[in-house]
Write a structure and sequence with these properties.
The protein is built from 30 helices and eleven strands. It is mainly alpha-helical. It has a three-stranded antiparallel β-sheet, with no helix packed on it. The chain has a three-stranded antiparallel β-sheet with strand order 3-2-4. Strands 7-6-8 form a three-stranded antiparallel β-sheet. The protein is flat.
Length: 719
């Protein structure tokens, strides 16, 4: 009933009533700053279900085909003894006769528990086989790619961390929304839960192959394909098989969750026994569950690991579920030597002028937030706040600075924060070169300066709404403050470019001299997300006066009255309300509901995409297409990060502006969220290069072996 009330309330909510200002220390203050993440995801789900159903069918087809073939047409349809003999033969081929005998006895016990238990046992074996097969098909190639390409591993590793840290109850929801209740969605969730150890251990096994063995193979003329197939994969086989075994154990542990999602098997019998408190049925199902787990575990173990029994491996797998690399025994000692103490290179006269120019631009940008950013009405706040476009002329003639909700709002706040970052970068680099935080340097100033420029330009170019919402409403004007913010951002950006050109920074270790296609791919993915975000919903207006007319209200009232009747089917009524809301998302043409590019919206998505396109252009030299000198790559990666951060900050500032000033029922859309993530992906692609560069160290000539080695200079520069 609660979901029904929530859905109807969202559809039928009225205008916001005046209320007293809530204190910052009051818990009710949090409701005024609620991040509409749930609304974003709901918009995305409705859009995917309505527009991409053929794609969902294509994704589901392999799972449906394998489950129907292996479970429905094979294991569940042939006599039980053939299944036992087949599993024994498989165990004998993979392991040995002793393990095969154990498999036969264990499955025979599952059979004599009863026909129902055997059918669920067969379904369980088939379900696990499909899940592990899909994990192997996806996990091993991804793990090999991670082991051979550092860029792929850096992109995949955060995803694996999320898959292992987030509880399966969280990510099972989208699978249910897209593919419904049943074995298909349960198999997908099981695969997501179980595949990370296989990818991690495959990656680790490939990386642990001795480098001298690989070089010897290449020296004898082996191609990279032969090195992979004849050297790396065979030597990494123990790690890969350990990954398969851990994946199988994790798949078994998901049988209970799969039963909750509507899958059959022994997990379903256990779930029913617990629900009905049936001790007899629960004990029999538990015994069958244990025996199946033992059979699959023993069969999948690699030779030489029999000393570790099942329970010890389960305990180790659970203890190392977030770092399965620790399951492999590694040898070797870390050797290294401390760098000799030295001073960081000081800021020389040639570097001071661009540094001061960058600082001056930052000061202009910071001061701009106290000057008018808009006049007569809120330029962006008017989209979500009715009072900003009222006909009484209460805002006519007034001006609002960069911190006001009707002025710059979070665009101004973001400019202030980024301007402070630029100013601090200049101050710290001047007085304490090399000793401040890593991001307070020339490249950090470059990224923040470009972001300031992008934010100010987007605010100036954003399309106002006041003159098109109500006839006679005041037209928001552009104030001098935002123009100064743009000027300050441009000055700081030009200064930062020259500063980076002269800054004495070098990589801690030499960068690779190959073209980094993986980083270019990351930028392209980020740009595609910006493109999708531009056409996605940037503002969703569900205020009553916008979307609920008399006809729709009559439908809502009728459904609510029907729900109050005795014996009403609440699930069906809730489904009707959800369907009505989904239809409204498609049909609503209110002023406040738009994407990021159409004429009826602010077009912030367009300017975010343009910033992303500039990031793509900057990434071409940043990945080494037009030169591979270390400092050249560093400068262009900073420019790429600046444009990517600019796109992300445009989307984030709009989201926060909506949270700050919009009426209840008006929220930012999933398009803005996608644009923010796309910009962040672009920035993340530059981190591997930017983090390597540090301030150069200067060593006195007395530490050199001889005066001749010191050269004409009195000092030597090293990093």
């Amino acid at each position: 009933m609660s979901s029904l009330q929530e859905t109807s309330t969202q559809l039928a909510q009225g205008a916001v009533e005046a209320s007293e200002t809530v204190s910052f220390w009051d818990n009710l203050f949090l409701d005024e700053w609620r991040i509409p993440f749930g609304d974003w995801m709901e918009q995305a789900v409705f859009w995917v279900v309505n527009k991409m159903s053929p794609v969902l069918d294509v994704v589901a087809w392999p799972f449906e085909f394998l489950i129907d073939l292996i479970v429905g047409k094979f294991l569940a349809s042939i006599p039980w003894f053939w299944v036992v003999l087949l599993m024994m033969a498989l165990a004998a081929i993979i392991r040995n006769i002793r393990v095969a005998s154990f498999v036969g006895v264990a499955l025979f016990i599952c059979g004599i528990l009863g026909g129902d238990y055997w059918m669920e046992t067969a379904r369980t074996i088939g379900f696990i086989f499909v899940a592990v097969l899909m994990c192997v098909i996806i996990g091993i190639p991804v793990g090999i790619a991670c082991g051979r390409v550092d860029g792929v591993w850096m992109a995949v590793r955060p995803i694996l961390d999320g898959m292992q840290v987030i509880h399966s109850f969280v990510y099972m929801l989208p699978f249910i929304f897209f593919w419904g209740i049943g074995e298909v969605s349960a198999t997908m969730v099981t695969m997501v839960f179980a595949v990370p150890p296989l990818i991690r251990l495959t990656n680790l096994g490939i990386r642990q192959v001795p480098e001298d063995v690989q070089e010897a193979a290449r020296a004898y003329g082996a191609s990279e394909r032969r090195v992979l197939l004849d050297v790396q994969i065979p030597l990494a086989r123990p790690a890969i098989m350990t990954g398969v075994n851990q994946t199988l154990l994790l798949s078994i542990s998901m049988l209970g969750i799969a039963a909750i999602m509507g899958a059959g098997g022994l997990g379903k019998l256990l779930f029913n026994a617990i629900s009905n408190q049936d001790i007899s049925k629960g004990a029999s199902a538990g015994l069958a569950f244990l025996l199946v787990a033992l059979v699959l575990d023993r069969t999948s173990q690699r030779e030489g690991s029999d000393s570790a029994h099942l329970f010890r491996r389960i305990r180790r797998a659970w203890a190392h579920r977030r770092n399965p690399e620790a399951l492999l025994e590694t040898t070797g000692e870390n050797a290294g030597s401390e760098l000799e103490e030295a001073e960081y290179a000081s800021v020389e006269s040639a570097e001071r002028l661009p540094l001061m120019l960058t600082f001056a631009g930052a000061v202009i940008a910071i001061q701009s937030v106290v000057l008018p950013w808009s006049t007569n009405a809120g330029k962006l706040s008017s989209y979500g706040r009715s009072s900003d476009v009222s006909l009484d002329g209460s805002l006519a003639g007034r001006s609002f600075n960069g911190m006001d909700a009707s002025g710059g709002s979070w665009f101004g706040v973001s400019v202030l924060i980024l301007g402070l970052v630029v100013a601090l970068s200049a101050v710290v680099s001047y007085f304490r070169p090399g000793r401040g935080p890593r991001f307070l340097a020339a490249d950090g100033a470059m990224i923040a300066s470009v972001s300031v420029t992008a934010l100010a330009a987007a605010h100036i170019l954003a399309r106002p709404i006041g003159d098109r919402l109500l006839d006679g409403a005041p037209d928001p004007g552009t104030g001098i403050g935002v123009i100064l913010a743009l000027v300050g951002g441009v000055i700081a950006s030009l200064g930062a470019v020259r500063w980076m050109w002269l800054s004495r920074r070098a990589p801690f270790r030499p960068l690779t001299k190959k073209i980094s296609w993986s980083r270019l791919l990351a930028v392209v993915i980020g740009l595609l997300m910006l493109f999708a975000g531009m056409f996605g919903v940037w503002n969703s207006d569900e205020r009553r006066e916008t979307i609920v007319d008399d006809e729709i209200q009559a439908q809502i009232d009728e459904l609510q009255q029907e729900a109050e009747e005795p014996g009403a089917n609440l699930a069906a009524i809730s489904a009707k309300l959800i369907s009505l809301r989904s239809q409204l998302y498609e049909e609503v043409t209110g002023i406040g509901t738009s994407d990021g590019v159409s004429a009826k919206g602010h077009r912030l998505g367009l300017w975010a995409l343009i910033s992303g396109c500039l990031a793509l252009l900057a990434s071409l030299p940043a990945v080494g297409l037009f030169g591979r000198e270390d400092r050249w790559l560093w400068r262009w990666n900073a420019a790429t990060a600046g444009f990517g951060a600019g796109a992300a900050m445009i989307a984030l500032s709009w989201i926060l502006t909506t949270l700050r000033s919009a009426d209840t029922g008006y929220v930012s859309g999933v398009g803005a969220f996608l644009a923010f993530v796309g910009g962040a992906v672009i920035v993340s692609s530059t981190v591997p290069v930017l983090k390597e560069f540090k301030r150069e160290r200067v060593y006195d000539d007395e530490i050199l072996d001889s005066p001749a080695e010191a050269g004409p200079s009195a000092s030597a520069v090293s990093n």
